[in-house]
Specification:
InterPro entries: NDK-like_dom, NDK-like_dom_sf, Nucleoside_diP_kinase, Nucleoside_diP_kinase_AS. Helices cover 40% and strands 17% of the residues. It has one domain: Alpha-Beta Plaits (2-Layer Sandwich). Strands 2-3-1-4 form a 4-stranded antiparallel beta sheet. 32% of the residues are buried. It is built from 7 helices and 4 strands; from the N terminus they run βααβααβααβα. The protein has 138 residues and is of the alpha+beta class. The chain binds guanosine-5'-triphosphate and magnesium ion.
């Protein structure tokens, strides 16, 4: 079945939102296949965000993702890749719709990085690549 890589970013862990975020994934009917609390290594973040290397927000983003532990998980189910991104809401939490994770819990804190609580793979190719980064034994 389809699988996606979800990260509860350090802002989500720090704010105590792990449970509420996972609850929404489960309530939607997806399965949690793997789950780990990790402090991301520089190597993991460089690989995870390689598509953004060179962009102005890249270094602030990597710094933010290193600020504290994050939760990496693999969720599975038919349509889970677009389905989780729908649960997450748009990238910018200012405009993310109410009812979404970012719309309900995230806001613009006026700093250089968007603290938008979660990451979700954007395609099957990204999911396979990202699952290998966070769960190399998989
Ligand atoms: P992810 O699920 O986290 O990958 O978010 P996304 O797919 O909605 O966004 P994208 O992959 O384009 O960007 C990855 C992350 O970089 C975002 O979630 C934000 O945290 C950050 N980001 C993206 N665009 C910007 C930007 O224009 N400015 C800043 N400061 N951060 C950005
Ligand atoms: Mg993305």
């Amino acid at each position: 079945t389809e699988r996606t890589l979800v990260l509860v970013k350090p802002d989500g862990v720090q704010r105590g939102l792990i449970g509420q975020i996972i609850a929404r994934i489960e309530a939607k009917g997806y399965s949690i296949e793997k789950l780990e609390l990790v402090h991301a290594t520089a190597e993991q973040l460089a690989a995870h965000y390689e598509e953004h290397e060179g962009k102005p927000f890249y270094q602030p983003l990597v710094d933010f993702m290193s600020e504290g532990p994050l939760v990496a998980l693999v969720a599975s189910g038919h349509g889970v890749i677009p389905g989780f991104r729908s649960l997450a809401g748009t990238t910018d939490p200012t405009t993310a719709a109410p009812g979404t994770i970012r719309g309900d819990f995230a806001r613009d804190w006026g700093v250089s990085v968007q603290k938008n609580l979660v990451h979700g793979s954007d395609s099957e190719e990204s999911a396979a690549r990202e699952i290998a980064i966070w769960f190399p034994e998989d």
